[in-house]
Every structure is written in C-alpha cells, then in structure tokens.
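User: Hey, my collaborator sent me this sequence without any context and asked if I could get a structure. I don't really work with proteins. Can you help?
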Amino acid sequence: MVLLDGKSLAETIEKQIIIQTNFLKEKGVTPTLAVILVGEDPASCAYVSMKIKASERCGIRCIPKKLSQNITQKELLQIIQDLDKDEQIDGILVQLPLPKHIETKFILEAISYQKDVDGFHPFNIGRILAGVEAFAPATPLGVMNLLQHYNINVSGKNVAIIGASNIVGKPLASLMLNAGATISVCHILTQDIAFFTKKADIVCVGVGKPGLIRADMIQEGAIIIDIGMNRLNDGRLVGDVAFESVSQKASFITPVPGGVGPMTIVSLLQNTLLAAKQRKLKK
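Assistant: No problem. I've predicted the 3D structure and written it out in structure-token form, which is a compact way to encode the shape of the chain:
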C-alpha cells in the first residue's frame, strides 16, 4: 500500500508557484486574490485562514473580506461587483457555505468567469464538461494532479465517485471522463453504494460521513481517494474511509489529513496564478 502524500506534493508545487510569481512580479504583475468570508463558521474560518497563509507563502497578494453573518444578498453582490471591476484583482473566492438567507447560485454567477478561480461559475463548469480549458474546481483539480504525480493513469479504469455535489462530485466526474475513465456517480439516493465500489478500480468519496467506505466494499488493490473531512468528538480529523481496514486492501490511499486537503489549497493558488497570466500578460 502506498500513501498518496498530498502534503508533500503541495509543498513542491508551492515552490514552483513562488518561482512563477516572482517571474510575474519582475514584469510588474502581482497575482492578487480576494477572499470573501461571510459569518463566523469555525470550519470556514479555518479554511480561509489556511488559504490566506498559503497565498502569503507563495507571494500572492491576498485581500480578505470578512463580512457579517447578517449581510444582505444585495450588499454581498455589490461587494463582488466592486471586486470584479478592480483591475488589480485576478481572482475572487467566496467561502462556502453561505448563510441560508443568501442564494449561493446568484453569488457564484456574479463573479466573472475570468476571476472565478474556484471554478464554480456555470461558464467554467460547462467548459470543463466539454473538455475545454477552464478553471477547474480546486478539489477535483487537486485529485487529478495527485493521481498524475503518482503515475496513476485513469484511462480505461472504472471509477466510482461517492458524492454528486457541484463543487466536487460532478466536476470530478467530468475530469475523469475527459481523461478516459468509466464513471459511476453515487449520491444520497443510491440504494447500494457497495454494488459500484466493489467493481471500481478507483473509489473517490467526499460526503462528510466517517467510515462510510469499509474494506468489504472495495476490491483488492483498489485506489482510494478520500476527500471527506470530519472532526470527531475526540478531536481527531478523519475522512469518509475506514482507513485502518481499507488501507490493508488498497494499493494506493490518501491519508486524512495530508491527502486531498493540501492539494485543494495549492490548486486554488495555481488557478489564481493562471488568472493573473491570462488577464495581465495578454494585454
């Protein structure tokens, strides 16, 4: 069994980003990312903090916007519009989830696709689905980069994706399909997840349910990508896979923490760097 070490790979990619960022700065371009956080959700605050620190390590200018939980949708849209018009800003990120009184889809669509470094705008999602270059959502992009680094070719493989969100499951399915994999996507209405996972060469899971994937649900030598992130009552951070037992049967597996999480953050920075190049070097 081989651990898919996302932490180590992310650190290597960060070094590459620093080199590219310094190159852009020599040309008078400072990649700049605006990060919007609405409310005081502990998990969201932690994620935003990690993204800001990673940006700073890589020399990317980060502009945090910490907003009240009670901000209106109209006020938030105005802030996004102002950031969108600011030529100094290359990428705009809105940390999800948003408060219930705000329609997430309207907020994500308000960000121009050229600054949508999270890859959530329908324009970018559509291009990814069509196999055309675009900003891919950071977590699916991180998964694909991690597999590529370990020379795991998904072409011709059976892939079971557990979770059908617009942020992870659906775009990951598109990227896998574009790479030549055969895809099964399971979700909350799927009656027998094990039916699909037992036939899969690669199992990707990200639904937020500890221990969902057990050893008896996978085939010998399967590749396991655990995208889940769950905080247990004892404080431990675990994924959606029963790691101890599943790792005895898998050929490759991501740890939690240290697997997909670091790759998600560094993929966001890669998208921000790409946005700066596209917007400012072509002018």
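In plain terms: The chain has a mean pLDDT of 95. You can pass these tokens on to your collaborator as they are.
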